[in-house]
Structure formats: structure tokens, C-alpha cells
Amino acid sequence: MQRKLTLTIDEEVYNGLRAVIGPRKISRFIQELVRPHVVKNGMYAAYEEMAADQIRESEALDWAEGTLGDINDEER
Known about the structure:
The structure is a single chain. The protein has 76 residues and is mainly alpha-helical. It has helices at residues 11-20, 26-38, 42-52, 54-73. It has two domains: 1-39, no CATH class; 42-73. The chain is built from four helices and no strands.
């Protein structure tokens, strides 16, 4: 479902939006720009699920710490 929203913006910004984005595409542009900041999508949920997996997190930490030794072994 779509909802109508009235925004007040500076005239210079409005003119720039019309010139760069196009007069009939501003709503979609703003929606796509704002969405990642206000809507929790599947990617964030997946990251939270991964972080909650204690075994996976422990294995990832062990792997990351194990690779640090590789850096010290490299010749400069």
C-alpha cells in the first residue's frame, strides 16, 4: 500500500531534483534513498541471525585470530 506524504524542501533542492532525477521520478528516488535507513530488510535480519549463532561467531573469531599470525610471517 502506498501513502501520500507532503514534504517541504528548499526551492533550489526541488529544482535540482527535477533537473537531475526528472519530474515524475522524485518520489521513487526519495523512497529508494530513505528505505535503507528506516526499513529493516532481510539482509539486516540475516546479520542479526548470524551474530546470534554463538558457535559460528566463535569459529569466525578463531579463524580471524588465526590469520593474524599469517601477517607476521610475511617478509617486508
